[in-house]
Design goal:
The structure holds 2 protein chains of 2 kinds. By secondary structure, chain A is an all-alpha fold. Chain A contains 24 helices and 5 strands. Chain A has a domain of 256 residues. By secondary structure, chain B is mainly alpha-helical. Chain B has one domain. Chain B is 73% helix and 0% strand. Chain B has 10 helices and no strands. In chain B, helix 1 packs parallel to helix 9 and helix 2 packs antiparallel against helix 8. The chains are: A mainly alpha, B mainly alpha.
Chain lengths: 623, 285
């Protein structure tokens, strides 16, 4: 048992958003909700900082199951309530699939509970990985909620909306703290419910359809998870993640629970072939997209895989197949992102793509790759939050989410253009962390060079779709051309600047982040091979001189800019034609071809996953 | 001491690339039965451009061009001090990215066309060169260029061959002079740059060439320093001749044919080489 202060912080991180959520549900007035959300955000951020200090100085925090048995019972009861809610929901929306999944979950859960759950283990285990996830959820998630306060002014049902948003944060924090798989399952399903409520918030036909699709996919993932938990009870006689035997000692049918949990992770992280729900989720208001893509939901799947790394490490074809799913998702969705004109859709594909990259890192099963995975996860969250919030502001100011309509944003909304520039830079340009992870990953891939082909093609495609977008944002005619300047709202400015500052701090603090958060977790399985030496990132294969890059860039730009007087402004050259020029971007493929590729890759991936499960079963039965 | 030599070399890059491009112009001219300019002509052109005032359309474009130069120059520096080739390559890729954004940031149809073609070129070259770099790292067990094995050309011959079309694309030579196609889209991405800014963009391109050629020449490293220099100079001159020959004897491809060519044959060749090496290391052969 940990001391009182620690317990208070842990409880606050889960309960404060819960209370805040219930509070906003009870109150209809936006002004009151605003106060509730802001104070919840403050509590969350302070608590996560406090908890970080405690974990970093004293090590992981554990709570034994025997001390919290009453809470375990409450969670089981709530779980049943939740599943009944899903059954009602399926009935209301006439979704047979959702009903089937909910019933399967119910029967599996009842079966497990009747079988009896051991109490010799830790129900809560907060280590560096949990801390990183809680940090992303609590800080980025809070900023998005504050952003939502302004964005949702034109929408209705604020109480319900912010209740679901805050509940989402509580569920995420709860999930990453849980060491008991049953606790994790409860919070996992809670995020499913929240995402259903948020995606369907506007209650248009399309929103309702998307919401039920999302619920179907993620409930299906929940079935895989609870079956995995049941089998874990059967084979390993435990529901505690840390008691699952190490991957190298597993063989035959014992791999089945892990494979099922991986499938559950794929549904949450919207990997191929389960990507449909995340693309549909675009209809939701922008704060929801921002929350789903950066601070919560999709991270949960990746988190589960990261959490299971000790158990997946050394399982041979299982972890390789997991990596392949990620790698194919990375490449296919990066190519698809090049063909999209809607900024939110580009971002949705790029989220799937980046999470695929993280999962590919996990599948590579090396020390460097695991380090890259955790770095990517952190920087992806920051950058995606920034980009989604920017798109939301653009939508509000210009009424469009189309990349083509973003021409001249540099002059119209300079702050937003800067935010998009920073967000994209974090993804592709040095010295930001994502670039460092790209470098790391490329090094890691040399242990299995066959995978390099997918990787290099995917990186190429990623550069292309970001360049097209960034270029359009900065497209502008003559400097002196008069363009109506829009004013960026204070709340938006705060949210964007705060996120950007976190991004800069994470970049500058990449050394402490590595030493404090990432390497300790990596060292559970591997010898950490990445370190910071005299301001360079040094791995076993190479160096990335982060500080040198920053310094030289500043010096060169300063030298050149200082000595340059800006030349006179001229209009563009148009071969003597005088008509107005309009630019647009290029989308490479027709919708039909895009649909064809998605369909083909989905079929292939279903076959891959089915093949994985059947190989495990067949090999197990034969053995 | 070595660092000082490296910095000195780095500062000399514009001179070296200028001479190389001058040589290329002379060879091309002789192939066409002309006398051709002086070998220093490219350098004189650059100096003249840098001294000119020029004009601009908007500030964003100028800023992106400077950023491109900074990234390419750092990439070349990292390569020359014998550090990580993968870092150098990735930084140089970021520099190319910046040039595309610069070209897109003016509302000019030619510039946009050029930029989109440039993107297709990036799609055609980035994967190939990156795979080449990864295979070099795989073959040597390190990406630090001074730790690379000597004469990598013997272990990775297909990768060397596959890099030649990539060099042509990066040099904007026929049949791959697609983005800047002067007769079609008036030098594409560069159309709205003039004077000093144009000079800066040229300089950025020269540093980019250094990174590309630098990676290429690393295949021919020898342990004996004198032999090393001799071999590299011979390879460089041969490549310049070969490129001039290809440039003069081929017609411009469409960008899609370039992409298909590069991603099937070039990428395929490197991949094949890598797979063979992987199987040999795995003890299959």
């Amino acid at each position: 048992m940990a001391d009182t202060l620690t317990t208070l912080l842990v409880v606050l991180l889960v309960v404060a958003p819960l209370i805040g959520g219930l509070g906003s549900l009870a109150i209809f007035k936006l002004s009151a909700i605003r106060k509730i959300v802001i104070s919840t955000a403050v509590v969350l951020i302070t608590s996560v900082l406090g908890l970080s200090y405690l974990v970093l100085s004293n090590g992981a925090i554990d709570y034994n199951a025997s001390d919290l048995s009453s809470i375990s019972i409450i969670i089981t009861l709530l779980d049943l309530v939740l599943i009944f809610a899903f059954i009602c929901l399926a009935y209301k929306q006439k979704s047979i699939l959702a009903a089937l999944f909910a019933f399967l979950q119910l029967s599996a859960l009842v079966f497990i509970e009747i079988g009896g759950v051991g109490e010799h283990g830790m129900v809560i285990h907060i280590d560096q990985l949990s801390l990183m996830m809680a940090f992303i959820t609590s800080v980025i998630g809070s900023i998005i909620c504050v952003y939502g306060l302004r964005y949702m002014e034109h929408y209705e049902k604020h109480g319900r909306f912010f209740a679901a948003m805050l509940l989402f944060l509580a569920a995420m924090n709860g999930a990453v703290f849980s060491n008991s798989l049953l606790w994790l399952f409860f919070f996992w399903e809670l995020t499913t419910l929240c995402s259903y409520l948020l995606i369907g918030h506007t209650e248009t036909e399309q929103a309702k359809r998307s919401a039920i699709t999302a619920a179907e996919y993620t409930l299906g993932g929940g079935v895989a998870l609870i079956f995995g938990i049941g089998l874990s009870m059967f084979y390993f006689d435990t529901v505690f993640i840390d008691q699952i035997p190490l991957g190298s000692s597993l063989a035959g049918l014992e791999l089945l629970p892990l494979a099922l949990m991986a499938v559950a992770a794929f549904t949450k992280s919207a990997q191929l072939p389960f990507q449909k729900w995340l693309l549909g989720a675009m209809v939701a208001p922008t704060p929801v997209s921002a929350l789903l893509h950066s601070a919560t939901m999709v991270n949960l799947g990746v988190y589960l895989l990261l959490r299971l790394i000790p158990n997946l490490h050394g399982t041979g074809f299982l972890i390789t197949t997991i990596g392949m799913v990620g790698l194919i998702s990375f490449l296919v969705t990066a190519v698809l992102a090049m063909t999209q004109s809607n900024a939110k859709r580009v971002l949705a594909y790029s989220t799937i793509s980046n999470l695929g990259l993280i999962i590919a890192c996990i599948g590579l099963d090396t020390s460097l790759a695991l380090t890259a995975a955790m770095l990517l996860l952190l920087f992806h969250a920051i950058s995606k939050a920034l980009l989604f919030m920017s798109v939301g502001v653009v939508k509000e100011e210009t009424g469009s989410e189309d990349i083509d309509a973003m021409e001249g944003l540099r002059a119209k909304l300079p702050l937003i253009a800067a935010a998009i520039l920073i967000g994209i830079s974090m993804m592709v340009l040095p010295p930001f962390g994502m670039f460092a992870s790209k470098w790391l990953l490329s090094e890691a891939v040399t242990s299995l060079p066959i995978l390099a082909l997918f990787l290099v093609l995917g990186f190429g495609a990623t550069l292309v779709y970001y360049a097209k977008w960034l270029g359009q944002v900065f497209t502008r005619g003559k400097e002196t051309e008069v363009i109506e300047k829009h004013h960026t709202d204070r709340v938006y400015a705060f949210a964007l600047i705060a996120t950007a500052v976190i991004g800069f701090m994470a970049t500058a603090g990449i050394g402490p982040i590595l030493d404090g958060l990432i390497n300790p977790y990596v060292s559970n399985v591997f010898d950490p091979t990445l370190s910071v030496r005299s301001l360079d990132l040094v791995s076993s294969l190479g160096v990335f001189p982060i500080m040198m890059v920053i310094m030289l860039a500043i010096i060169i730009v300063a030298l050149v800019v200082r000595s340059t007087k800006l030349p006179p402004v001229m209009d563009v050259y148009a071969c003597g034609e005088s008509s107005e020029v309009r630019t647009g971007t290029f989308y490479y493929w027709s919708e039909e071809r895009v649909a064809h590729l998605s369909q083909a890759s989905n079929i292939g991936m279903y076959a891959l996953l089915f093949g994985l499960l059947s190989v495990i079963v067949v090999l197990g039965v034969v053995a | 001491m070595e660092l000082i030599i490296s910095i000195f070399l780095w500062a000399l890059i514009p001179l070296i690339v200028g001479v190389m491009l001058g040589l290329d112009r002379i060879v091309t001219a002789r192939m066409q039965g002309r006398k051709g300019p002086s070998v220093l002509q490219s350098i004189r052109d650059l100096l003249k451009l840098l001294g000119k005032k020029g004009s601009m359309v908007n500030r964003s474009q100028v800023a992106f061009v400077y950023l491109a130069l900074a990234l390419q120059a750092i990439a070349a520096f990292i390569l020359i001090i014998g550090s990580d080739i993968l870092t150098a390559f990735l930084l140089s890729g970021a520099g190319s990215f910046m040039m595309v954004v610069a070209a897109l940031s003016v509302r000019s149809p030619y510039s946009h066309l050029g930029a989109h073609r440039e993107l297709v070129q990036i799609m055609a070259t980035e994967p190939v060169v990156m795979l080449v770099v990864l295979s070099m790292g795989y073959a040597s067990g390190s990406f630090i260029s001074s730790n690379l094995e000597g004469a990598l050309v013997l272990t990775l011959p297909l990768a060397v061959i596959a890099m030649v079309p990539t060099l042509l694309i990066r040099l904007e030579k026929s049949p791959f002079d697609i983005a800047t196609a002067h007769s079609e889209i008036v030098s594409g991405p560069y159309v709205e740059l003039s004077g000093r800014t144009l000079g800066i963009s040229k300089l950025a391109h020269w540093y980019e060439l250094v990174v590309m050629f630098g990676i290429f020449l690393l295949f021919f490293s020898m342990s004996d320093p004198i032999l090393d220099v001799v071999v590299k100079v011979i390879v460089l001159v041969t490549v310049v001749f070969a490129i001039a020959l290809i440039d003069n004897s081929t017609a411009r491809l469409t960008r899609w044919r370039m992409l298909r060519f590069s991603l099937t044959y070039c990428l395929g060749a490197v991949m094949l080489n890598l797979v063979i090496l992987y199987l040999i290391n795995g003890g299959v052969f």
